[in-house]
Amino acid sequence: MSIETLQSLIPAYAKDLSSNLTNLLNETIVNDQQKWGTFLSCAHAVGVPAVVKNIEAAASEIMTPEAITAAKAAAAIMGLNNVYFRALHLMQNKEYEKMRAGLRMNILTNPGVDKVDFELWSLAVSAVNACGLCMDSHEKVLRNHGVTAVQIQAALRIASTVNAISAVLRAESALAST
After folding, report:
1. Residues 162, 40: Cα–Cα separation, whole Å
2. Digit-coded pLDDT (tens) for 102-116
3. Where are the chain's structural domains?
4. Residue 100's pLDDT is what?
5. Which intervals hold domain Carboxymuconolactone decarboxylase-like (predicted)?
6. What is the largest CA-CA distance in the chain?
7. Hey, which residues are catalytic here?
8. pTM metric for this prediction
9. Nearest Cα to 65, choosing from 36, 44, 105?
10. CATH C-level class of 3-176
11. How many helices (H) and strands (E) does the chain have?
C-alpha cells in the first residue's frame, strides 16, 4: 500500500485530484511532519479505508510512531470538538456557549508532538468537519506562533484534496457494491 496505489484507485474523471495529490506531496511550504500529519489526520477524519491505509503506509516511512499517534489523536479529538462546537455556534440559544463542555480533551495540552504541528492538523481536520469556530480558534493559535497564511493554506489544500479523494472512492465503492 502506498501513494501510488492510492493514485491508481482514483478514476480518470477525477484526475485533477490525483494531480493535486502529487503537487501536495511535493509541497515544501510546511515541513514533512506537518505535511504528512495533515494527510494522515484528514484521512482518519474522513475514514475511507483505502485512503487511510495508503496514506498511513506512506506516512509511516517519514513520521515517528509518536507523531502518527498524535495525527490520529488530532482526528479523534476534532471529531468530538467539531460536532460540539459547531453545534454551539449554529444554535440560536447562546446559553449553551456559557456552559462547561464537560468533555475530556487532555490530548490538547500534551499531544506528543510540537504544538504547532498538532494545531495545524487540528485546523485541517476542522476544515474537513466544517467547524468554522474551531478553524478560527486553531488559525489564531497558529498565527500567534508565527505560522504564515501560506502555510495554513497548504494544510487546507491537503485537507480538501484528501476529502475529495475520499468522497470519490466512497462513491466508486458504493457503485461497485450495487
Report:
1. 9
2. 777 777 788 889 999
3. 3-176
4. 85
5. 95-175
6. 50
7. 131, 134
8. 0.93
9. 36
10. mainly alpha
11. 8, 0
